[in-house]
Amino acid sequence: MQAPQLPTSQVEQPKESRFSPYQNNGGTCLALAGADFCIIAADSRLSLGYSILSRNTPKVAQLTTKTCIASSGCNADMVTLQKYLKFKIQMYLHQHGKEMSTPAVAQMLATTLYHRRFFPYYTFNIVGGLDQNGEGCVFSYDAIGCFERLKYTVSGSGHALIEPFLDNLVAYKNTDNKPTIERSCDETLELVKDIFSSAGERDIYTGDFVDIYIIDKNGTRYEQFPLKKD
Amino acid sequence: MSITEYNGGCVIGMAGKNCVAIACDKRYGAQYQTLATDKTKVYKMHDQLFIGLAGLATDQQTFYERLKFRLAMYSLREERLIKPASFGKMVSTLLYEKRFGPYFIEPVIAGLDKENKPYLFSSDFIGAPLLPDMDTNGFVVAGTCTEQLMGMCESMWRKDLEPEELFETVSQCLLAGQDRDCLSGWGAVVHIICPDRVITRTLRGRMD
Amino acid sequence: MEASLEIPKGGFSFDLCKRNAWLESQANYGSSSIIKKAKKTGTTIAGIIFKDGVVLGADTRATSGPIVADKNCEKIHYLAPNIFCCGAGTSADCENVTEMMASNLTLHRLNTGRECRVITAVTMLSQYLFRYQGYISAALVVGGVDSTGPSLYTIHPHGSVDQLPFVTMGSGSLAAMAVFEAGYQEGLERQPGIDLVRAAIQSGIDNDLGSGSNVDITVITPEGVQRFRNLDKAEPKYKSKNPLFYPKGTTKYYDEIISKVAIIEGDAMEQ
C-alpha cells in the first residue's frame, strides 16, 4: 500500500544554513621589477561592502631582506598566510643557516597555496624582490598556487584599471617607439605613485595610503604615500 | 555573462582643445567566438557629431535606425543641424522611455558645438546622462572593457590636447584597454573631429 | 514604420519587455540578471530645517558597481523656484523623476497662478512612485519654503513619506545621521545649519565608499535660494613629477581619411 501523500503546503521544507567562510576586503597590490631593484606596493584600506573597516592595515609584508609579499582578497586569510610564510622562512634560516632566496620563497608560496587546493586561502598574492643574481623579480599568483615570473604585475580590486597601463607604459605594447633607457628606481617609484593615485580616483576599494617597499642591493626601504580618503 | 557583453566591443570618447575624438574597436562576436572583425560601432550623425554604440549588436542597429529617423524628422521640422547637447538629451530620453524593457546599449556621443567647444556624453543603458567635467575628466568610455579604458584615461588624459596629441592618447588608451579584454579588439577606428575637418584613421592592433 | 509612432507621446514603452525576458530565459548568462549595470548614485544626501528655512546637502559621486562613473555629478535637483530635491538610487530614475516633476509643477503654477507648496510636490512624487511599486528606484529628500513656512520630507522608492526636522538618505545615510543626531538643535541659525549639513555630508564622503568627492549645498529661505556647488572640495589629484605623454608617431595606422567639413553659411546650429 502506498503511503498517503501529504499536501505539500503542510510539509515543512528542510532548513539549510550556510556558512560563508570568505569575504573580499578589497585593495590593490602592485609590483614592478627593474634591472637591479624591485618595487612592491599596496594600498592600506580594509573594506567590506560599502564600509571602511580600517584605513591603515598593511597588505605588504617583508619576508626576508630582499623579498616582500603583497596580498589582497580576504584579510583573515592574508594574515594567516603571511604568518605561516614567515614561520617557514624562519625555520629555513635555522635549518640551512642562510636566507631563503626570492625564487625559493615564490616556489614555497605556490606549494603552500596548492596544499589547500580544495579549501583555498582567498588571497591574490604577489611576491617581489631580488633574485640570486641581484636582478629584480616579480611573481604573480592565483588563489590556488599557479604562478609565473614576470616583469610587473597587479592584483586586487583595481587590477583592471592598472593592468593595461603597465602593458602600455612599462612593456610598451602597441608601439615601436620604445625608449632605449630603462626607468630608474626613482622614476619607477614616481610611476607607482601615479598609478595608485589614478586607481584611487576610480576604484572605491583603493584609497587611504600606499605602502611602498623599494628593494635594491642596499636592502629594503619603506615609504608611505597618501591617497584620497573618500 | 551579461547580455550587454554578448557581442563584445567598446567605445571611447575624449576631448581636446577645440577638437574631440571618438574611437571604437572592430570585433563582433557571439560570446567568446569571434564572428567578424570589421564591425565598427561609431556612426556619423552630422559633420560635427558622432555617436558610438557599445552593447548588444541587434539593439545597436535598431537604435541607430531610430536615431537616424528622429534626426531626419528633426532637420525637416527645424531646418537646421541638431546641437550636440540636444542630441544627447534625445538619446537619453529615447533610452529612458524603455526603462522597463531597455535596449542593451551604452551610447557615447562626441561632437563640437558652434563655438567649437568639445561636447562629450555617455550614459548607461537606461539613459542616465554623464557629462564629464571638461577641465578635469574630459573622457567617456563604454563597452566590455570600461574599467581598463577608464584606468588608462584617468592616467593619460590631460587638458587641452592638440588634435595629433589627442589621436595618440585616445589610440593608445583604446589599444591598451582592449588588449586586456577578450570581448573587444581586432583593430580600431579613430575619428578626430576638428572644426574644419574630420580625420578618420584605422589602427593596427593585436588580432586575437 | 509610421511616423506617428515615432512622435514622442510620453510615458514608458514596454515593447522590449517580452523580448528581454526571452533573452534572459535563453542562453545561460549567469545567475545574475541581464539588467545589472545601471548607474547608481551610492550617495549621501541630507537636509535640515533651520530657523529661517531649509538646507539641503549632497555628495557628488556616481558609481557603477565598484567603479566611480562620475566624480562630480549634481544630485540636488530643481523642482520649483522654492523647492529643491536631492536624489539617491538609480541615476536615470532620479534624473527623470525630478525633471518630470519640475515640469508638472511649472504647469501647476501656471494653472493656479500661485507658488507651489512643498506638500504638493511631495504628494505628486509619492503617488507617482507608489504607482510603480518601487520599480522606479528613486529615494528623495524634498525641501522647500512655501506659505506654510519651511518643510522637509523624504520619499522612499515605494512611495512612503516622512516629515522630519532633519533627514538623511542613501548608502551614507547612517554616517550623516550620526552627525545630525549629535549636533542638531531646533532653531539653528543659518551658518551653523549649513555647517552641520556640510559635516554630515563630509561624514558620508569619508566613511561610506558609495559616496565621495565634493559637497553640494542648497539653502532655501523665504528670501530666495542660494546654491553652493562644490562648497567643500576633495583634495586635488596627485600631480606627477614626470607627467606621461605619448610622443607623435607612437601609434601606427594604415588608413587615413580626411573629410572636410562643409561650412554652412551662417550658424548651422543657431538658436
TrEMBL record, chain A:
Organism: Guillardia theta (strain CCMP2712) (Cryptophyte)
Name of the protein in question: Proteasome subunit beta
Complexes and interactors: Component of the proteasome complex.
Pfam families xref list: Proteasome
Known role: Component of the proteasome, a multicatalytic proteinase complex which is characterized by its ability to cleave peptides with Arg, Phe, Tyr, Leu, and Glu adjacent to the leaving group at neutral or slightly basic pH. The proteasome has an ATP-dependent proteolytic activity.
Keyword field contains Hydrolase: no
Family that this chain belongs to: Belongs to the peptidase T1B family.
Primary residence: cytoplasm
TrEMBL record, chain B:
Family indicated by similarity: Belongs to the peptidase T1B family.
Superkingdom to which the source organism belongs: Eukaryota
Reported function: Component of the proteasome, a multicatalytic proteinase complex which is characterized by its ability to cleave peptides with Arg, Phe, Tyr, Leu, and Glu adjacent to the leaving group at neutral or slightly basic pH. The proteasome has an ATP-dependent proteolytic activity.
Name of the molecule in the record: Proteasome subunit beta
Keyword DNA damage: no
Keywords per UniProt: Cytoplasm, Nucleus, Proteasome
GO biological process terms on file: proteasome-mediated ubiquitin-dependent protein catabolic process
Compartment(s) of residence: Cytoplasm; Nucleus
Species annotation: Guillardia theta (strain CCMP2712) (Cryptophyte)
InterPro entries cross-referenced by the UniProt entry: Ntn_hydrolases_N (IPR029055), Proteasome_beta_3 (IPR033811), Proteasome_bsu_CS (IPR016050), Proteasome_sua/b (IPR001353), Proteasome_suB-type (IPR023333)
GO cellular component: cytoplasm; nucleus; proteasome core complex, beta-subunit complex
Subunit-structure text: Component of the proteasome complex.
Chief location bin: cytoplasm
UniProtKB/TrEMBL annotation, chain C:
Subcellular location: Cytoplasm; Nucleus
Gene Ontology molecular function, alphabetical: threonine-type endopeptidase activity
Alphabetical UniProt keywords: Cytoplasm, Hydrolase, Nucleus, Protease, Proteasome, Threonine protease
Catalytic activity: Cleavage of peptide bonds with very broad specificity
Location of the active site: 43
Keyword Acetylation part of the UniProt annotation: no
Gene Ontology biological-process annotations: proteolysis involved in protein catabolic process
Pfam families: Proteasome (PF00227)
Family matches, as InterPro entries: Ntn_hydrolases_N (IPR029055), Pept_T1A_subB (IPR000243), Proteasome_bsu_CS (IPR016050), Proteasome_sua/b (IPR001353), Proteasome_suB-type (IPR023333)
GO cellular component: cytoplasm; nucleus; proteasome core complex
Hydrolase keyword on record: yes
Main location: cytoplasm
Coiled-coil segments on the chain, per record: none
PANTHER family from the UniProt entry: METALLOPROTEASE TLDD, PROTEASOME SUBUNIT BETA TYPE-7
Function: Component of the proteasome, a multicatalytic proteinase complex which is characterized by its ability to cleave peptides with Arg, Phe, Tyr, Leu, and Glu adjacent to the leaving group at neutral or slightly basic pH. The proteasome has an ATP-dependent proteolytic activity.
UniProt record similarity statement: Belongs to the peptidase T1B family.
Subunit-structure text: Component of the proteasome complex.
Identification of the protein by name: Proteasome subunit beta
